[in-house]
Amino acid sequence: MNRPYGTTLLLVTAVALGCGDEGEKSSVRQPSGATAAVRTDANRPTVVFMGTSLTAGYGLDPDQAYPKLIQDKIDAAGLNHRVQNAGLSGETSAGAVRRIDWLFRQSIDVLVIETGANDGLRGQDPAQLKANIQAIIDRALQQDPAPQILLLGMEAPPNLGRAYTRRFRAAYRELAGENGAELVPFLLEGVAGIESLNQADGIHPAPQGQAIMAETVWRVLEPMLEGVGSSR
Description:
Blueprint: H1 5-18, H2 32-40, E1 46-51, H3 53-56, H4 66-76, E2 82-87, H5 93-103, E3 110-114, H6 117-121, H7 126-141, E4 148-152, H8 162-179, E5 182-184, H9 207-225
Parallel strand pairs: 1-2, 1-3, 3-4, 4-5
Helix pairs in contact: 4-9, 5-7, 7-8
């Protein structure tokens, strides 16, 4: 993805800073619509969004976070899937690996993985980022039946060097290709760095930004949902 270096630095560094220290927000926020679905029909095919504050909807009502907006799109399309928002503010890819077993206490039909912003801020080796995400995918593929995987890509701060940003970006593309996973190249495309689409902190997406993120994800997710979970 090509964009001016200064813009990318503003976008990605700000997002990573906004994700906070790992464990800062200890609760897993789940959209209210998804909560109702879990209580009324546990057999519906499940789409789990595993992510950072971007997915958790930091600073917003849970109904404004993009996973809940995806649930609205699912309902409007007449599909039967239920969404669970498992976003956790401040989480790194290593932290995501540590809680994957907890997530798989339930059946998951589609696993959406959003991680990496905090890794980029900390200058984590892209090879380690890739290994951590691969560990999550490997754990998912141990399930019977295994969920489909949708990987949401992030961008790294260019102040770490052109070689680093290329390797960081490539990690997501390589993971998708090597595992047959679907990919959204950059979750914040059209949102990051645009003042009107972010909260007052200039870091976390505002409701309008979350709506664009939902559209970005939905373009890739919708075709994946056709027939998913029909045998459960």
